[in-house]
Amino acid sequence: MAKAFIFPGQGSQKVGMASAFVSGFESGMRVMEEIEEAISFKISEIIAEGPVEELTKTENAQPAIFATGMACVAILEKEYGYEIARNVKYMAGHSLGEYTALCAAGAMSISDTAKLVRKRGKLMAAACPDRENYAMVALLGVGSGVIEPLVAPYQSGRNICVIANDNSESQVVISGHRKAVEAVCKEAGHFGLAKAIELNVDGPFHCPLMSQAAIEFDEVLANVTTYRDCNIPVIMNFTASPIIRRGDLPSSLVGQITGRVRWRETTDLLMNDREIDEIIEIAPGRTLSKMLKRNYNEANVRSLETVAQIAEFAKSGG
């Protein structure tokens, strides 16, 4: 039997989230130091002390979440001797978490990945500067089958609204111009919408309004990163398909900026694989593992967000 590792995206950040992984663990400290050297920024101070408003900024949240996840992975491997390459069949990450998955799978170095997520965050935050004109809203109680026809009229011009995250049968996130997003929310109220929650983000991510960010990020990918084949297949957001070959990475990473996060399809793939007996969410937080338990009663999931949980997982043989 095998495991699957999943990594959370933006929104999972919280002040102090990496403190246990860098206090007293050399491998965790080295990860943080390598990331800070790569991005020329003391991200550990914001992670440890906040304020939360500064940590929540996209350009800070993305490298902070990546640093926390990779510190957790380093401790699991180097301090507790867990052999990820032997025990894990698939990796996947939600939006930003995809980069942590790729790095953990050996596709990119920690330094290169840190540079990418920092630049990605800056480009995404800058793509739509008039923030009040845009919105991302999580719709609870409805799935993509309900929302797809509702967003269909809002695909161009000044009235764009698309499904940004297809998270599950009962949760999608829509993104675009505020007026269009509000119109879709109102319509969804007639089709079983239980709740609409606006997300505290810097722009309408995973939609065509991010096209300029995607163009500029494509250039960054060409100049910053040395790719390697993945040691473990990574299921990509843009296609919901696993990749190994390094040549497949750039197009998927660029496409993810404007394209849909196909998380429902990703988790379906994991849940339908009979070789996978447990799905592990790597720090920070438990957002993805909670979602899995809500959507699949039979899901065997756990989260590793403390050193004690890492030790217990490693001791059990994973």
Helices and strands, with pairings:
Layout: E1 2-7, H1 19-22, H2 26-39, H3 43-49, H4 52-56, H5 58-79, H6 84-87, E2 88-93, H7 97-104, H8 110-126, E3 134-140, H9 144-151, E4 155-156, E5 159-168, E6 171-177, H10 178-188, E7 195-198, H11 211-224, E8 234-235, E9 242-243, H12 249-258, H13 263-271, E10 276-282, H14 287-295, E11 301-304, H15 307-315
Helix pairs in contact: 2-5, 2-8, 5-7, 5-8, 8-11, 9-10, 11-12
How would you describe this protein?
It is built from 15 helices and 11 strands. The protein folds into 2 domains: 232 residues, Malonyl-Coenzyme A Acyl Carrier Protein, domain 2 (3-Layer(aba) Sandwich); 72 residues, Alpha-Beta Plaits (2-Layer Sandwich). Helices cover 47% and strands 18% of the residues. It is globular and about 55 Å long. The protein is of the alpha/beta class and 318 residues long. Strand 10, helix 14 and strand 11 form a beta-alpha-beta unit. The mean pLDDT is 95. The strands form 2 sheets. A 6-stranded mixed β-sheet has the order 9-8-2-1-10-11, with helices on both faces. A 5-stranded antiparallel β-sheet has the order 4-5-6-3-7. The longest helix is centred in the N-terminal third of the chain and has 22 residues. The termini are close together. Helix 2 crosses helix 8, helix 8 runs antiparallel to helix 11 and helix 11 runs antiparallel to helix 12.
